[in-house]
Amino acid sequence: MKSSLKFINAKYLLLNLAAGIYFFVAIGNEARAQKIEIGAGLGGLNYKGDISPSLRLRFFKPAGSVFFRYNPNQAVSLRAELMGGIIGADDKHSKDPFQRARNMSFTSRIFEGSAVAEYNFLNFQERRFAVNWSPYLFGGIGYSTFNPSPQVGNYKTSTFILPYGVGIKYQVRRPWNIGIEYGARKTYSDYLDNLGGDAVNTDKLQQGDPSLKDNYYYLRLSVTYTFYKIVCP
């Protein structure tokens, strides 16, 4: 019950953070044209940690997100995003004899809020009739909550994250855009898979590598709608 309340409180904190970021960017830059996008994405999460030391396609699980993007100029975009999904892995699919003998598995819901900056290589901008697309890099900061099942021990089920990655955006037809993005989330927790940190017992098979932090990865397709607002001088 206590863990559920902490999870709910963290959600409200992330929602308030996203609302504050939106208000800040919406009232700025009033002296010229503003371009704000709202969007949604669907894709999958993957995980790397003690139970899956490397990324494996079989462990991709569903995820989705909503976000808004503010474009102060052609080269830079600012984005705030809320994402939810599932991660999981199973030792039985490993080729490592130790992992097969351990035979552990987990699933965990992930809820994440993040704020990132994007750098557009091709100066992404409005063009009515020309092809308009650009690859981009992004990086920023965020906060993530999780609830591994089964959960053994009393540990913190939230962590700051550093999201970073690459993507491509394409303006299909004003005001609609599509995109594809792949990003990593560096975490500061070893408990996403319920296996790590301090040992919970003396059984070596039930212990993870405390030096290996858990990370997860988000691949998504997105659709955005751009609002064009011209402020008269």
From TrEMBL:
<dbReference type="InterPro" id="IPR045743">
    <property type="entry name" value="DUF6089"/>
</dbReference>
<keyword id="KW-0472">Membrane</keyword>
<keyword id="KW-0812">Transmembrane</keyword>
<keyword id="KW-1133">Transmembrane helix</keyword>
<protein>
    <submittedName>
        <fullName>Outer membrane protein beta-barrel domain-containing protein</fullName>
    </submittedName>
</protein>
<feature type="transmembrane region" description="Helical">
    <location>
        <begin position="12"/>
        <end position="28"/>
    </location>
</feature>
<feature type="domain" description="DUF6089">
    <location>
        <begin position="23"/>
        <end position="232"/>
    </location>
</feature>
<dbReference type="Pfam" id="PF19573">
    <property type="entry name" value="DUF6089"/>
</dbReference>
<dbReference type="InterPro" id="IPR011250">
    <property type="entry name" value="OMP/PagP_B-barrel"/>
</dbReference>
